[in-house]
Amino acid sequence: MRGNSDSMSSERRGGSRRLGLSNMLSLSHPSDRIGRAVREAQIDAILRLVPATAGIQILTAGVMVVSLRDTIDSFQLGLWFSVALLICFMRGARAIRLRQDPDYAQAHPARTGMICFIIVLLASLWLVPALFWFNAAGPEERLFMCVTMAALISAGSMTLVSLPQAALLYILTITVGCAALTIQVHSPTMFALVLVYAGVLTANMLGSARQFIAHTRDRIELREQGEIITLLRELETTGSGGLWELDGDLSIVKMSQELLDAMGLREDQVLNRHYSKLLDPAGQIQNLSTGMRRLFRDLEEGTPFRDRAIPSAEGQRWWSLSGKPIKDRQGRLVGWRGVASDITAARLSGNDSVRAARTDPLTGLANRLLIRELLEESVMQRWDAPVGCALFLVDLDRFKLVNDTLGHAIGDQLLVEVGRRLEQSVRDGGRVGRIGGDEFAVIWTEECDRDRLAAVAGQIVADLSRSFTVGAATLHVGATIGIAVYPFDGEMEEELMRSADLALYRAKEAGRGGHAFFERCMFEEAEDNRLLEQDVRQALNGDGLTLAYQPIIDAATGAVVGREALLRWRHPKRGDIPPDQFIPIIEDTGLIHQIGDWVIREACAEAVKWGEELRVAVNVSAAQLTGAGLAKTVLGALATTRLSPDRLELEVTESVFLGDDAATLASLERLRALGVRLVLDDFGKGYSSFGYLSRAQFAKIKIDQSFVRGAAEGARDCLAIVKAILALARGLGVETTAEGVETEEQARAMRRLGCGQLQGFHFGRPVEASQLSDDLNAPSRLIA
């Protein structure tokens, strides 16, 4: 490992020792990255001093003008000072902008040649007093000129020392002016002293510049050595691999001998090649490997990465890469440095961190990362072959019940046993892994026709449906499976995972304990739901969601006694979206709280405009009953609208009792304490428990339309259920409403059985508030 660091740094240290005068004074931009970084540091040191030096130059020029105002033409002095002021101001402003505006610095970087040109131009301005005004000046003015020129040459040698090219040109230019002064006073001795003085300043400047450059280079190399040491530590787990380095064009500029040996390549085969030509010569792997695509994206965008696992070009080996971008002072990407190690064997066996990162700690099976890699490997081995592979996503049924009743410790042991049984089911035909929670994956690499895959899925379901013995407990779970087949259901790991997940979702919808193959319509449906989710968010912020109100009729008199507020969505392109299509979406996305609160406030605001005896009913989902948020919303809506609490009915379905019964009852009690009426909707259709009728103190029961329709048609079971519900309601003193009444025959049947209220299309379809009838107390007109 030490050889990695030494081999890649010896050249840099040698470069520092070989720094010659020609390199130090070169105006061309360095070709090597370290040289470019040093040059940027030199220029940055100059730029930091520019505002101060420009100010001193302007001040000195001003003093010069004042001292010569009595002997030199004012126009000449004014013109000279204006040019000096303009150059210094522009130089200072550009220096400040270069340091404070990264975009400007990137678009218009400071160049050594341009800096030297400006320095020579500025120094040349000081030749004007020495060459043209010295003879006309008085003794005191001449002395001031000599002192000023000596001070300027000394100051320039110090302030420009970080960029010796500019400093040398400045010293030479000012020296010309000083020499001209000595010639004009006819003093050979002073002329010689000027030359000696300039020579001493030049020698000192070059020595200081060499020291500055050497220290800057050493500092940069030391920082990079620290980064290299950090990267080398990542190789300690495998010891197989080495260092690599890219330039700003993402071409390989360095690769350690250890890494070359591990890859079986020579240095001339990799240097100056673009990284993509080495990792993916045919351009095919990035189309199949998620890891390769992410690596390419990170390298192009300059995003650091660690332990990025990618397959080799031939698909037989796996490499782990870590890298850090190298950026200049403006944040521009100028290269990459990183390490690579061969993890082909380590990821499947051994006790190191590479293996640990790919193993599920509970079951010892492959985790999500290794499953992804194995799936990529299977795909790459088959992308040009006539055979395929398949991915099974296995979701346990009733596992949550085990966790809730027996605890997580028993649940964890059950997961271990499930993993073992899965491995026994697939044997050598595939690889088993745990994705997370109670979801497992099987990569099937044997025969992949549908009949064979269906048989494998059936065997897995049968094996997992057999009882498990964990400690003293005998447990019964089941499994539901989604299947995706390569290449029909996806040609990349991500696509196969998504397809299998959609198939699993469809299998759960069809009933647990079965399996489903991916079909194209599943993706189209999922994509449609995703787009609907985006649209419903926009509709919530706009005016796309509205409320429609359906009348509730007194069965005896036919008068309207209330209205149910129903959520409607008119899509700008699709038209009216059915509630059963978008309500599940807003529940899954968590929008139900925001939308539900809006519905309650809107319904209360509308109901307060009706007659005092009319009630408004609002549907509430199970998700809204969590916590005290719903009670606060109801209280706020009642306070704002001043609607009487007993005029608000909140309808819940029996499904609210499937979760935390105590929490549900507590939430319902908070609502009842506000004075609102609680209504049990679709009674008898789902999770029925007569005990909840009294414990939750419902004020009304709504009979599901399926029973209403069946009872009107004379179906014995429906008739018996409706009679039982009505008898129960009378015994508890609870009102009843028959839902979905669409014909006069159904209405007569419900009246005859003793139902108190009726609701359905026969009495009126849901309409918006602006279309509600003004005659609220008249008997409702029957609608055929």
Automatic annotation (TrEMBL):
SMART domains: EAL (SM00052), GGDEF (SM00267)
Protein name, entry field: EAL domain-containing protein
This protein's record includes keyword Transmembrane helix: yes
Keyword Transmembrane annotated: yes
Domain GGDEF stretches: 387-520
Keyword terms: Membrane, Transmembrane, Transmembrane helix
InterPro entries (UniProt xref): Biofilm_reg_signaling, EAL_dom, EAL_sf, GGDEF_dom, Nucleotide_cyclase, PAS, PAS-like_dom_sf, PAS_4
One Pfam assignment: EAL
Domain EAL: 529-780
Transmembrane segments: 46-68, 74-93, 114-136, 191-213
